[in-house]
Amino acid sequence: MLVFDKGYADYTWHNQLTEKGIFFVTRIRSNAKYRVLERRTVNKSQGITSDQIIVHF
Known about the structure:
Helix content: 10-25%
Strand order of the largest sheet: 1-2
Radius of gyration: 12 Å
Structural class: alpha+beta
Order of helices and strands: EHEEE
Oligomer: single chain
Low-confidence stretches: none
């Protein structure tokens, strides 16, 4: 499991991680182009605002 900030946006690397089965958590840039594939339930009392599976294009 990797965690990194939105300041590092290398989508080719993100795709390589995904292809290897490596999970990661990041905040997405506000201008990123993506589509939400799945929205997961979160416990907002724990400070989690959203959990989504997305595809970047």
